[in-house]
Design brief:
single chain; 120 residues; mainly alpha; AhpD-like; 6 helices; globular
């Protein structure tokens, strides 16, 4: 991993750090929440497929917090390690070397949340 020691801790910290935005920019945050809900709602693509796409974009965009949030969602949605690794291959194809480095971080996030789900 890079400077991230725990994706679970990172997602908790980011969620906490978003609190002032929820308070001071409630319309923006509610709008973003509605956008997220609409974008991820099952349609022609199911929610898991959409989360795999979101994770691939998070890898290509090199967004640490995105890796944590989408890995957690993918574990909840039952993504298999094989599905996850195939998605990482597409992300690396689209983003090159920098995405390869973030693919390693995404795998670490997925493994962390998978281990926590198995322990629960």
């Amino acid at each position: 991993m890079t400077s991230v020691d725990s994706y679970a801790e990172l997602t908790r910290t980011v969620s906490k750090n978003l609190a002032p935005l929820r308070t001071h920019n409630p319309d923006v945050m509610q709008g973003f929440g509605a956008l997220s809900k609409a974008a991820l709602a099952a349609g022609a693509l199911d929610e898991k497929t959409k989360e795999l796409i979101a994770m691939a974009i998070g890898v290509a965009a090199r967004c640490d917090a995105c890796l944590g949030f989408h890995a957690k969602a993918l574990v909840r949605l039952g993504a298999t390690p094989e599905e996850f690794r195939e998605m990482l291959g597409v992300a690396v194809y689209m983003g090159g070397g920098p995405s390869l480095m973030y693919a390693a971080n995404a795998q670490a996030a997925f493994d962390e949340f998978s281990a926590a789900a198995q322990a629960a």
